[in-house]
Amino acid sequence: MSNPLGFGWKIHGDGKTIRPGTVVAPDERLHWPQTVGVGIQHVMAMFGATVLVPALTGFPATTTLLFSGLGTLLFLMITAGRVPSYLGSSFAFLAPVGAATAAHGMSGALGGILVTGVALFVVGLIVQKSGVGWIHALMPPVVMGTIVALIGLNLASATAPAMHEVPLTTFATVGAVVVSAVLFKGLLGRLSILVGIVVGYLVALAQGQVDFAPVFEAGWLGAPTFTLPTFHADVLPLFLPVVFVLIAENIGHVKTVALMTRRDLDHVNGRALMADGAATILAGAGGGSGTTTYAENIGVMASSRVYSTAAYWVAGTVAILLAFLPKFGALINTIPLGVSGGAGIVLYGMIGIMGARLWVQNRVDFSNPINLMTAGSGLIVAIALIVPLDFGGLQFGGIAMGTAVTLIVFHLMRTIARARGTEPTESPEDEGAAPSKLG
């Protein structure tokens, strides 16, 4: 890069075409018309999921878009243009934001988001100095997979009202999402969440479940709504598990980009975590949703073979411009219960299964009772604990308690097993359905 911000992109080839077997690297770009086109694709890819978060939490959609765009540009600056990424709304925040909002309003939830960003930034500073080895030791695959899974499964009950009250809209949305994911090819297939929202919205509209009055009353141009955070001790434990999930998503994103671009990006892991943390701090300070690197944009990069950070500068700028359209934000806020609930069924389930995917990808051995009890205990606590526990005035919900149980059970069992020489070892070959020590 020609400067610390990552500007000064080289033109790839003739600037119009990409030769077979090559990719447009992060420090390259096509001509601006092509680059703008790819940038708009990234906005479309993140749009459905990013605007669904404020629809589920009650946050202003335009404010979320503003801080999503600003966060993306901040990420590009802190990583000096080495890591192409769009920062969209993280679904890992849904449960703690919901609980914090119920107790202390939107400002209380923003305080939790801001503190989460600070924690992630500090982790990034440590990683930049010492590497990621300590993270893998603290959170091996069985622990990380369990934490990711329990967040999705804990949210399952939030979809029940939609299924009971407006079942047709809810399941029409689910059907549209799952069918479009395999029916369409290319970008449209990756926009299955957005397609599902549109179809579900039309079904809800036909049943008179949509109120357009706020849209007619909203202006065409105007600044987003800003809210200052407040801080409450009982909120903070709710957001601790989110830090772990953001770490896993961020490190996984950097690793994936490194593989796809054939570049060593290990030295940027710390910067990427700090950048994500800084963007989340910024969002929490003004009224936006917590951010994360977006997997949807990995798909756009893979299909277009364009990894240019110039395209992400375009994407971030477009998101910022959309934030100044109040009528657009009012339209997003008309998304009815059945549509958000139907999309939630798919998204929460995907979060849960992503945890299981971490187990599979890392070949977690569940014939090992340490792994089996770690995952089983954490998941059951997170799913069963609907009413938070009170410890000295602090509220601990299912996700916070499930995360704590997961970490404690794993490290306690492994420490004792190593001290006593009873730590199980992996079997030389798959035991299939052989019973574990639990019976």
What does this molecule look like?
- With 439 residues, the chain is mainly alpha-helical.
- Helices cover 66% and strands 4% of the residues.
- It has a two-stranded parallel ribbon.
- Helix 1 runs antiparallel to helix 13, helix 2 packs antiparallel against helix 14 and helix 17 (369-384) runs antiparallel to helix 18 (398-420).
- The protein is globular and about 65 Å long.
- Residues 427-439 have low confidence and may be disordered.
The gist of it:
With 439 residues, this protein is mostly helical.
Percentage beta strand: under 5%
Whole-angstrom Rg = 22 Å
Total count of strands: 6
Most strands sheet: 2 strands, parallel
Distance between the termini: 59 Å
Mean pLDDT rating: 84
Strand order of the largest sheet: 1-2
Query: Which descriptor suits the 3D outline?
Result: globular
* Helix percentage range: 55-70%
Number of helices: 18
- Helix and strand content put the structural class at mainly alpha
Low-confidence stretches: 427-439
Secondary-structure element string: EEHHEHHHHHHHHHHEHHHHHEEH
In terms of topology, how is this protein built?
Layout: E1 10-11, E2 28-29, H1 32-57, H2 61-78, E3 87-89, H3 94-130, H4 133-138, H5 141-154, H6 160-165, H7 167-183, H8 186-190, H9 192-206, H10 213-217, H11 236-261, H12 269-286, E4 291-293, H13 295-304, H14 309-322, H15 326-332, H16 337-361, H17 369-384, E5 389-391, E6 394-396, H18 398-420
Parallel strand pairs: 1-2
Antiparallel strand pairs: 3-4, 5-6
